[in-house]
Amino acid sequence: MSFPDKCLVDTNVPKMANRAIASDDIPEELVYCVLSCVKAIEHVIEKRGLVIDAGDEIFNEYRQQLSMKGQPGLGDYFMKWVHDHRWSLPDSERVTISKDGDSYKQFPEHEGLVNFDISDRKFVAVANAHPEKPPILQSTDCKWWGWKDALKDVGITVHFLCPEYVKTKYEEKIGS
Question: Is residue 15 assigned to a domain?
Fold first, then answer.
């Protein structure tokens, strides 16, 4: 699997990478997903290819769900890495976004995105505001599968690290 040199990382990616430390407890259908998330996090750190918002909204979400100590898992190591390096990333990779009620001025207008999760809009707003519209890495949040085409319509790519798992879960949800 190849990864983009520059991307946004949804919080569920480092959270899933953290599961590698308890490999005996990983359900079989998620083994590939955990491995993909580990490889993606390693790639982002090695390439220093993280894109975040200048106001620390993404950083604060990471901080709420990952350990700032940098352990015990790789996702926690990623958290510490972001903490230690976010201000040394190129200015172009720290994108300014502006709140607009529950959303952002930079969140794209598209009929298919009207019901997009409020808590995930910051990732889309940052990708949309960045001149290169870097992809968003996504692991297991199946709702994103339903929004991928609308996001593509506005020039935003979602790089699914667990596509078969997410597609299956999405189809199970909408089928019920």
Answer: yes
12 with 138: CB under 8 angstroms?
yes
Beta strands in the chain (DSSP E): 8-9, 52-53, 94-95, 99-100, 103-104, 136-138, 158-160
The Cα–Cα gap between 165 and 35 comes to 13
* One-character DSSP codes across 102-149: TEETTSPP-GGGTT--GGGHHHHHHHHHSTT---EEE-S-THHHHHHH
Task: State pTM to two decimals.
Answer: 0.95
Evaluate whether residue 171 is within a structural domain.
yes
Residue 2 resides in a domain: no
Q: Distance (Å, rounded) from C-alpha 168 to C-alpha 117?
A: 20
CB neighbours of 9 closer than 8 A, spacing ≥ 6?
Answer: 40, 41, 44, 50, 78, 136, 137
Q: What does the pLDDT look like over 73-97, one tens digit per residue? A: 999 999 999 999 999 999 999 999 9
13 three-class SS: helix
Instruction: Flag whether 28 is in a domain.
Output: yes
Domain tally for the chain?
1
Range of the domain at 16: 8-175
